[in-house]
Every structure is written in C-alpha cells, then in structure tokens.
Amino acid sequence: MAEADERYDPKSIEPKWQSRWEDADIFRTTEDPGKPKAYGLDFFPYPSGAGISVGHCRNYIPTDVYCRLMRMAGHNVLHPMGWDAFGLPAENEAIQKRSHPKKTVPQYIATYKRQMKLIGIGYDWSREINSSDPSYYRWTQWCFNVLFRRGLAYRSFAPANWCPSCRTVLANEEVQGGLCWRCGSPAEKKQLPQWFFKITDYADRLLYDLDDLDWPEGIKMMQRNWIGRSEGVEFQMEVAGTGKSFRAFTTRIDTIFGVTFCVFAPEHPLVAEVTAPECRAAVEEYVRQAQHVSEMDRMAAERERTGVFTGAYAINPVNGEHVPIWVADYVLMGYGTGAIMAVPGHDERDFDFARKYGLEIRRVICPPGKNPNDPITEAEPADGVMVNSGDFTGLPSDEGKERLAEWFESRGLGERKVNYRLRDWLISRQRYWGAPIPIVHCTSCGEVAVPDEQLPVLLPDVENYEPSGTGESPLAAIPEFVDTSCPRCGRGAKRETDTMGGFACSSWYFLRFADPHNQERAWDPEKVAYWLPVDCYVGGAEHAVMHLLYARFWTKVFYDAGLVPFQEPFERLVNQGMVLAQTPYRRPREGERLRVGEEGILISRPEAERLPSDQVIWKWEKMSKSKGNVVTPEEVVDEYGADALRVYELFVAPFDMNVQWSTEGIVGANRFLGRVWRLFWQARPLFIREWRDLLGDEFDDRSRELRRKTHTTIKRVCDDIRDFRFNTAVAAMMEWLNAIADFVQVGTPERQHRVALSEAVEAFMRLLSPIAPHIADELWERYGFTGFLFLDQLPVYDEAVAAADEVTIAVQVNGKLRATLSAPASASNSDLEQLALGHPKVTPHLAGVTVRKVIVVPGRLVNIVAN
Ligand code: ANZ
Ligand code: ZN
After folding, report:
1. SS3 (DSSP) at 822
2. Is the pTM of this model over 0.90?
3. Which residues are registered as beta bridge partners of 170?
4. What residues line ligand 1, using a CB cutoff of 6 Å?
5. Which of 207, 227, 249 to mutate to test the pocket of ligand 1 (most atoms within 8 A of CB)?
6. Which end of the chain is less enclosed by CB atoms within 10 A, N or C?
7. Secondary structure of the chain: what % helix, strand, coil (to 5)?
8. How far, rounded to the nearest angstrom, does the alpha carbon of residue 541 sit from its chain's CA centroid?
9. How do residues 827-851 score in pLDDT, each as one tens digit?
10. Rounded mean pLDDT of 306-335?
11. Among 471, 481, 488, which Cα is nearest to 436's?
12. Mind listing the pLDDT tens digit for each residue in 723-769?
C-alpha cells in the first residue's frame, strides 16, 4: 500500500476537513427532546484588533474538546460563539486607530472567526450573535425595561469616578489602585446623574446561592468578599456639649468598653459642625487633602494611617466616658455610617492609629492564656472573654454581642444591622458605543421607559463619536436623537443620552444563544428551559466578580419575573490557566526612568536578539499584545498543524495551571501525531472491520491485556475530559498508543490478535476525535469508514473487559524488597502507592522516617524512598 509511506501532513489534512465540516454543516445544533442536553460556553469575547493568541486558545480548545466528547457521548450539544462588541475596549481601540467601531468591529470579528476555524473549533455559527447589532441590543434594552419595571433601575446623582484621559466615567471596579484600568491615569471624582441597577436588593440571594454551585472555591470566595455581608450593631453616640449625635456601625459590639476614641470619615456631615474653632484650620486642610486619595488606597491595609483631632468628644453610651473624635481617611463615607467607635486594643487599623497619635489602648477581650491586665502589644482581633467591661465582664464574645445588642435595642439607642460592601451596579456610560438606555425624560411624567414594542432605541449613525469631555455622552449633541415625545403623555421630551456599559450585554447573552434569531421576544421560554443552565462555563479567573455576579443577578431577576425557570445561569464554572511567554526587557541606561514595578524597558524580540545577552532580562509574563510577546495560532498551525496545537495546549499542564509557552512542547505534540499516523498505516492491513462479530474468539494473555488497556483507557479518557483533566487524558492516549505499537511489534499471527488490535485502533480513532479531530477524521476515512466522527459515537466501554486480572507488585523500601502484593491490573499509580505504603510488611520500615519519594512502575514495582 503506497499510502503507508505517506508522511503525516497536517497542512493537507486540516483545511480539507475544515471545509468538509462546514459544507456538511455538522456543528449545527438540533433540538432533540429525546436526548440529554449539554451546553458548553466560553466567556463572551470582545473582538480586538490583535486577534486571538495561543493564550486565548487555552480557553477555546478545551471547551471544544469537552463539547465534542459530549456530542459523541450522545448529548445534544450547544456550543455557540458570539461577540461582546459594544463597550469601552472596542470604542477606545477604534479611537486610537482613528476609525469607527462600526467599521473595525466587523473586521475584527472576521479575524476571530477565521482563527477559530483554523484551530478546528466546532461552533454552531448559525447562532452567532453580536451585542452591537440592533437585533441583539433591542433585547438588551428590553432587559433594562424588565429591571426598570421592577424598580431595579434608578437614576441618582452620584460622585462618579472620572478618568481625565479616557474622558469617561469609570465603574468602581474599573479603578484599580486609584488608576483607570484602561489607561492607568489617576482617577478623579465628578458628580453626575447616573443610572444604577439595584443589585444590593439581591445581596443575600447572590451570597447564599453560591454554596450550591460547582465553581472554583477561590471564585466563590471572591464573590463572598465582594458582597461582604457583615452582621453587627448600629448605635447612636452623643457629641458632648453640642446636642448632636451620630451613628456608628460595629461588628464587635462586645469590644465597646475598649473604645478610646471615635473616627469620622472626612466627608462625614458632622465634621464641619462639631470641629472646635482651634482645630478648624487643620481639619479643613485634612479634609481637602483626602479628596485626592482613592477609596482603594484608603482601604489598603498597609497604608500609613493619618488623621486630625476635631476638638470634639463623643460619649460612650455604655459607660458615659468622653472620648476624642478624630477625622481620618481610613474610615469611608460609603460604608456603614461613615463613623466608627475605635477600639485600638482589638482592631488593627485603630491600633496603628492609636500608636501613632499616642491614644490609649485598652484590653477588653481576653483570649485563653492571657490575663485581663496583660498589656496589648499588637491588636488582638480574636474573640475571647470580655474583661474590664462593667456588668458584661466574664461573658464570651458571642454572648456579649447578643447581650449588648439587646441592651441597645431595649433602650432605643441602636439595633442589630446587616451591612454589605456590595454597591449598586453603575450602568451609565457617557459614551457612544453602547446600547442607548431606553428612557425618555418628560417634564410632566418624569422618567418614562420606551415601550417594549418601540424598541430598539437605535444608536444614531454618526461620524464623530468621541467622548465630549464634558461628562455628557456624545449622543447629547445630536438633536435628532435627543428630541422626542413622551411615550406616556405625547408632549415634547428628551431622550436619555447615556448608554449601557458592556456588562449589560454580557449579562444575558447565554440566554440568547438558546434562541438567537427570535424577533418576537428576547427568548422563547421553552428553548431557554431546554438549554439552560449552562452546563460548563469556561473562562479566565479575572472575571470572578463583575461579569459573573451581574449575570447571576439578572438571571435571578428574570426568575422572579417568571421569564426563566432557574435561579443560577452557570451550573459549573472552570477557569483555565494563563499562557505565559518570555518577554524581553532591556537593562536601563544611566538616568533612564522605569515604569513602576519594572526592572527594565520593554523591548521587542528582534531588538532583544540584536543586543548583547547581558543587556537583556527575560521574564515570563502573561501573553498579551501590550507586552509584544504574542504567539498567534497562525504561526503554530502553519508549522505544526492545528491538531498539534490542540494536543499541546491540552497536554502541557493541568487545565487550570499557568503554562510557559514552549515551541519544543509543540514539536512533541506534532511528533505524537506523527507516531499515530505511522502506526495506523502499519496496522491498516491487519484491521478487521467486523471485529465485533469475532469477540467470541479465545484470547490469549497478550490480547486480553491489550483489550483491557483499550477499555480502561476509554473510561479514563472520557472521565478525564468530562472533569477537565485534559493533560491526563492525552497522557493516557499516549500510553495506549505505545501499548498498541508494542502489540503490533510482537506480531499478530492469529485472528484473535487482529480482533484485539482492530478493537483498539477503532476505539483510538474515536477517542482521538475530540482532541485532534482532523487527523482522526482522516484516518477514519482511510480505514474505509464514511461520515464524520463528530457525528458518530464514542467507543463503547465494557467494564468486564476492563476489569483486571490481578498483578503482582514488588514493594521496595530504599531498594530492598520488603513485600509483594497483588493488585488489580487496572490499579492506578496512586492506588498502588497507597497499597504499598499501608502494607503490614512495609509499615515497620517506615516508622520514624519520612517518605521522600515513591516510584511506581505500573504492573511491577513500587519503590519507597525514605530517610
Ligand atoms: C469596632 C471594632 C472593634 C471593629 C474590633 C472591628 C474590630 P466589616 O467586617 O468589613 O463590616 N468600620 C465600620 N464602618 C467603617 C467605615 N465606614 N470605614 C472603615 N471602617 C469601618 O467591618 C466592620 C468594622 O469596620 C466595624 O467594626 C468598624 O470597626 C469598621 F475589635 O468597630 B469595628
Ligand atoms: Zn410625559
């Protein structure tokens, strides 16, 4: 057979299959109620001019493998893709390129799509959606109306974070370390009327429902912290000699006898009223200074505490003590009441502050092992027994909290209170490239929603869309857009000119994929009920809070409105690790200034190669356009093929770990596929297509062994892929390939050998298909099968065949034979390790030493290294 000499040539195989898949439209999703469904979804990408890198592929390839496997396992699979095309990134990029997002976005989308096809991703493109298309944002506006009608969208004046360089308002989460997340300029404050969604109404549900989600624990923790629920007491304190009082929130009312001062936030309204004349100048100056410090910095734990005394005193309600009132910026106006009782003995910030300004530090909580009069040398925030606390002395913290809450409540001086860190979601953008907020301002009717049937409020087609720089949206400068009539009373009225931030579009797109072309409504409830919730949601951990919290919030609102039958959109969430690339920096020259946190000047690769090597510092950094360290899928596919890229991305490390990009790794993946190719040509003449009918043959030991390997691997690969353990799935395929190769090597003189071999190679092709679909379909065809493996089935797993005969394993400790044990041939390395470590003849040799290493040779030996 001449073809047997043919080399593995992905360049001829891959485009051929990609166009065949496309022609046969194999990825189109069908809704078959008779089959279980599986919905695999990647985070909604925003198409940028840089295209995708092999870093992004680490998101798309694994999801594709999972979806392909589920399809072959008999599920109806929804695996769609669309574009988060509205929003700041697209707009800012277009501004930079002096183009228009209407022009750039479609170009970028075309690139993304081409790249995704190039790496063999099986999206159902018939469901493609684009959030900047009126047929989509019409329904984003409809969603706004749903919230508005339920009292969950409101407008209020609020200090907005303002980036003077992007000339735009920033959401709190877009200000990072006091800087604009896009451009890095320091953020300022500006008062503007803004639209908000009342996510705080859902704080408790968003918090409690996290418990049942199959999400990474770290992400759940971040959401819990973001919501920041805390239980405490809010109570009243008098300001001595003024007749005025203020309220303070504390989570530690059990420490109230330890209050030695109080602190107001600089913005607290009482500051001006209670400050004594001799303190006024200093206080005013401090308040002025504080305006320039971002909230983020004010909260930072490591920051040096500052403050000034107001000259006023507060009266502690439990003991009548007068304590000084200070102003300090570590107290935030936006949390609790903006005023605190300070307990330096048991709160770290208060401790630092008291140390710095020489304020009294008192012990009122005693942990086990300490005495009531032991001095406090650092803040002791733990609960304990109350001491020096009047009638409450001797109570444990928990009980003290209850008793004091009752004490305050019975006197009408305070009450139990739950506080949240979570703030309402600022949705307004004073920018062009977004869905217009569908509201009309009428002088007699107020804020009126544009009726659903009049949607969409179209984004006007304009040339000049750059931010006005006044804080107003550029839409405000377009009279044809602004001037309208009130939908309620018909009189002249003005349209809202703010647009919605991109997080609105991505808060419901996963629903639209279930019914992407519906022109009557946002979605057909039956289709959504069939496909949703998303079974597996795949993306980067950087969206831990915003997108994932907002999407959960909208889903709950839709649930309450009877629009969807579930309360959580994403049943299972997985985060892929990042791809890091070597990034060259040049050592700084004399007097050259560096960016914060950097040891050198970022340079390009060619530049790095020209410089003497001692001038260049190489660092592993996240692959990104801004670092100039991007490797594109095109480069890799061109040289090694899409299947090799896929195998490499899966095999290189556990799915959720960061990886360092390596070309050698791809060479290895390509070599593996080359081995598959050659072996399959070698085995081709031995293949018996009707092997299933011949399973009644007597099998000898080697044939049984191969069959066992086949079936244990089928199980392992399927389980691994479902659990996103792609690296071990590929490793199992590699081991299996070696076993098949050895088997062929030894020879196949009898029919039973060829039956076992045929079973193995057919199963191998099927299992290879989700991972490396092009080569799999090619081999499939060359073995005389027709059709596409994607539309075919996974190999059938037979537990009885996989069930192992026993094998005998020698157990050594430091190279000396100490025991032999029998174990199932299918036992994994860690099973064997456990058996060996627990063996009664082995344990005496491990007493008093530490196990340093356990080496397992499957089927043969366990060697324990201990000393
Ligand atoms: C006295 C105290 C003693 C406190 C103690 C803590 C420990 P969480 O858990 O985050 O809700 N606090 C209250 N309002 C504040 C504000 N606007 N800015 C800064 N800090 C504020 O934190 C609640 C605690 O943070 C409150 O309990 C208060 O300090 C402080 F041993 O009161 B505590
Ligand atoms: Zn009106």
Report:
1. strand
2. no
3. 161
4. 230, 249-252, 255, 265, 331-332, 335-336, 338, 340-341, 343, 346-347, 381, 419
5. 249
6. C
7. 40, 20, 35
8. 3
9. 888 889 988 998 889 999 998 888 9
10. 95
11. 481
12. 999 999 999 999 999 999 999 999 999 999 999 999 999 999 999 99
498 CA to middle of ligand 2, Å?
Answer: 19
End-to-end Cα spacing for the chain: 58
DSSP character string of 263-327: EE-TT-THHHHH--GGGHHHHHHHHHHHTTS-HHHHH-TTSPP-EEEEEEEEE-TTT--EEEEEE
φ, ψ of residue 747 to 5 degrees: the values are: 120, 155
Q: Whose structure tokens read 């496909």?
A: 531
Q: Which of 76, 133, 84 is nearest to 539 (CA)?
A: 84
Residues in the chain: 867
- Residue nearest atom 19 in ligand 1 by C-alpha distance: 331
Token match 């008779």: residue? 34
Beta-bridge mates of residue 37: 76
The pLDDT of residue 1: 41
Non-local CB neighbours of 351 within 8 Å, separated by 6+ positions: 344, 345, 361, 376, 378, 379
Q: Are strands 322-328 and 261-264 parallel, antiparallel or unpaired?
A: parallel
The reply to whether omega before 33 is within 30° of 0 (cis) is no
Nearby residues of 335 by Cβ (< 8 Å), 6 or more positions away? 249, 419, 421
Record the tokens describing residue 287, joined without a space. Answer: 């308040």
> Mean pLDDT across the chain, nearest whole number?
92
For strands 365-366 and 385-386, give the pairing: antiparallel
Nearest to 118 by CA among 72, 61, 47, 69: 61
- What per-residue confidence (pLDDT) applies to 455? 95
